[in-house]
Amino acid sequence: MPPSTPSRAVIRDGVEADVPRCVALDHSYDAEYVYQIQVNTDEESGWSIVLRKERLPRPVEMGGMADPSRLKLAVPDAECFLVAQQRETGDILGYLAMQHDRRHRLGLIHDLVVDRPERRQQIGTRLYGAARIWAKEQHITRINVEVQSKNLHGVLFFEGLGFNFCGYNDRHFPNQDVALFLSTSLR
How distant is the alpha carbon of residue 91 from its chain centre? Predict the structure, then answer.
């Protein structure tokens, strides 16, 4: 099946029945680089953190980490679960799930996935645009995203949307991979 054009994709609120179809998408990505993190401590100058992009010895295909139970948590109206659906066939092309932290007026994107054959069609950008509108309606002031340290394309995607590096967790994901956190202001 040829890739869909963005105009044939409809962004809509996701429902629980969409979860299995979203989990079935190809979540994998190719990794040629990894962000290495080096933390140095010095009693006089404090901490210094170096984030360096390093080429892997060979490209690696990274498997996706679809978690249906986590995705179901995004279904209620108080959270943000959006799907991109092919207008003619009804096929799910991608999805975005964002948690709403009311205490800090923060949105945390924990999933933004576009099926591999549909990538580079502006679907991810459109999903993010709809999530940004939802976030403003909820009075969210910042959006953060977690990206695996080997997902250079994901980091570059979010940087292109105006996100900046704001932190990391060296054992964040279930596979113990490093999460890079990027953030943008909605003010």
Answer: 20
Q: What distance in Å separates the CA atoms of residue 151 and residue 143, rounded to the nearest whole number?
A: 19
Q: In this structure, is residue 135 part of a structural domain?
A: yes
**Residue 79 covered by a domain:** yes
Closest by alpha carbon to 94, among 160, 157, 185, 144? 157
> pTM of this prediction?
0.89
Count of the separate structural domains present in the chain: 1
Asked whether residue 175 is assigned to any structural domain, the reply reads: yes
Report the chain's terminal Cα–Cα distance, integer Å. Answer: 41
Q: What is the full per-residue pLDDT of the chain (187 aa) written as tens digits?
A: 555 555 689 999 999 999 999 999 999 989 999 888 888 898 888 888 888 999 999 998 888 767 888 888 888 888 999 999 999 999 999 999 999 999 999 999 999 999 999 999 999 999 999 999 999 999 999 999 999 888 999 999 999 999 999 988 886 666 667 889 999 999 8
* Local structure of residue 78 (DSSP, 8 states): T
Residue 160's domain is classified under what CATH number? 3.40.630.30
Domain range for 125? 6-26+64-185
